[in-house]
Amino acid sequence: MIKHIVMWKLKDEAEGADRATNAREMKRRLDACAGIVPGILTFEVTLAQPGLEATYDVVLYSEFADRAALQAYIDHPTHKAVVPFIGAVREARQCMDYEV
Questions:
Q1: Which pLDDT score is estimated for 32?
Q2: Disulfide-capable partner of 43 in 14, 34, 53, 65 (CB 3.0 to 4.6 Å)?
Q3: 36-71 tens-digit pLDDT
Q4: Is the pTM above the cut of 0.70?
């Protein structure tokens, strides 16, 4: 199994919207990727919550059956369609994939 964790810090304003609006839109777009390929075991998109410590605005926690499933997700047109929006609104990105 491969765990794929990505965290994004968003710009204060981008694409004509503020950080909170873009975070919600990013979550909506990423949530649409949850079942796009076989082998996605877990797919959770979370936004920073007021009152709880957070240094990033959006987190994706996902688990894939194997590397092939992760690659199929990365290459899928639905995922690829989300990438330009994320690139436009993000200030920073951290990612870690690891096998368990």
A1: 98
A2: 34
A3: 999 999 999 999 999 999 999 999 999 999 999 999
A4: yes
The CA-CA-CA angle for residues 56, 59, 64, to 5°, reads 150
User: Token digits for 7?
Assistant: 């965290």
Q: How far is CA 40 from CA 14, 33, 64, 83, in A?
A: 30, 10, 5, 18
Point out which residues pair with 34 in neighbouring strands: none
- The residue whose two tokens read 């797919």 is 43
> In sequence order, what are the residues at sequence separation of 6 or more whose Cβ sits closer than 8 angstroms to the Cβ of residue 78?
32, 33, 36
CA angle 67, 28, 48 (to 5 degrees): 85
